[in-house]
């Protein structure tokens, strides 16, 4: 079982987190809870938990300050919960190595998804020795095989003709859309929407070079109902219009 500490200054929220799921079912054991950052730091030093679930705003030491203090000194994963959907909070949580950023009210499925990702991160950190085989087997139980970034790419590849959104994909990964978007940009160096446009234009280039289909039909076929918008995005990415691109292929 993986020791887990809950840090939340609101009593009702703290009790709710303790009861929201059957923790042992997913391989986690609650070793304590704290109502402020200083109390949490003392418990972390004493209990050495594998996971800390912390609110972002706490009396005294904030959740982000707590993460900065612990990360690097101890092998502890963090899940951040917050009532604030703000870029700077998410960005700082990512920099500090948070596994997930969950908005309040916390939903059961979203929390379970985050816990499974914690197990995946811990599994990667295990040394590849026979002694760690038992721990690895325990961590792998119930863990999703899909990497969220790989899942995003696969989903776009299969649905680029549709009006695919990060919100839609995030709902299938149990991650908050904004957080998943930040993870995607960090991993790929490109914004999600720009990535979708790139995939669509790549498909359009292939069709322009290998078929005689009308440009408007190609636009609709790769996810652009508006031909003018398609031309705009195509030129932005390739530096030329679709008709000019096709002419150069002859």
- How many domain modules? 2
Strand order in the sheet with the most strands: 2-1-3-4-5
Q: For the terminal residues, how far apart are their CA atoms?
A: 64 Å
- What is the number of beta strands? 5
Uncertain runs are 128-134, 140-145
User: What can be said about the biggest beta sheet?
Assistant: 5 strands, parallel
Shape: elongated
Class from secondary-structure proportions? alpha/beta
**CATH fold naming of the largest domain:** Rossmann fold
Per DSSP, the total helix count is 13
The radius of gyration is 23 Å
Q: Find the CATH superfamily of the largest domain.
A: Response regulator
What would the average pLDDT be, to the nearest integer? 86
Order of helices and strands: EHEHEHEHEHHHHHHHHH
Structure explained in plain terms:
- It is a single chain.
- With 250 residues, this protein is α/β, with parallel strands linked by helices.
- The protein folds into two domains: 2-140, Response regulator (Rossmann fold, 3-Layer(aba) Sandwich); 146-250, Homeodomain-like (Arc Repressor Mutant, subunit A), CATH 1.10.10.
- It is 56% helix and 11% strand.
- The protein has 13 helices and five strands.
- The chain has helices at residues 11-19, 37-47, 63-70, 87-95, 108-125, 133-140, 148-159, 166-173, 177-188, 192-210, 215-221, 227-238, 242-249, and strands spanning 2-7, 28-34, 51-55, 77-82, 100-103.
- It has a five-stranded parallel β-sheet, with helices on both faces.
- α2 packs parallel to α3 and α8 crosses α9 (177-188).
- The model is unreliable at 128-134 and 140-145 (pLDDT under 50).
């Amino acid at each position: 079982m993986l020791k887990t500490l809950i840090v939340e200054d609101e009593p009702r929220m703290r009790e709710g987190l303790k009861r929201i799921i059957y923790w042992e079912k997913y391989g986690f054991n609650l070793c304590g809870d704290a109502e402020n950052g200083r109390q949490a730091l003392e418990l972390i030093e004493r209990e050495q938990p594998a996971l800390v679930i912390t609110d972002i705003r706490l009396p005294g030491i904030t959740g982000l300050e707590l993460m900065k203090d612990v990360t690097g000194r101890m092998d502890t994963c963090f899940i951040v919960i917050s009532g604030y959907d703000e870029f700077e909070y998410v960005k700082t949580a990512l920099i500090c190595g948070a596994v997930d950023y969950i908005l309040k009210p916390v939903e059961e499925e979203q929390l379970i998804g985050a816990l499974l990702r914690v197990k995946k991160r811990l599994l990667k950190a295990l040394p590849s020795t026979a002694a760690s085989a038992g721990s690895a087997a325990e961590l792998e139980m119930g863990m999703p095989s899909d990497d969220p970034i790989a899942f995003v790419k696969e989903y776009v590849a299969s649905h680029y003709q549709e009006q695919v959104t990060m919100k839609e994909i995030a709902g299938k990964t149990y991650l908050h859309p904004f957080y998943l978007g930040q993870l995607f940009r960090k991993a790929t160096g490109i914004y999600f929407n720009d990535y979708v446009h790139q995939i669509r234009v790549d498909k359009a280039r292939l069709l322009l070079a290998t078929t005689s289909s009308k440009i408007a039909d190609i636009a609709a076929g790769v996810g652009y109902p508006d031909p003018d918008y398609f031309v705009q995005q195509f030129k932005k990415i390739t530096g030329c219009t679709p008709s000019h691109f096709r002419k150069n292929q002859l």
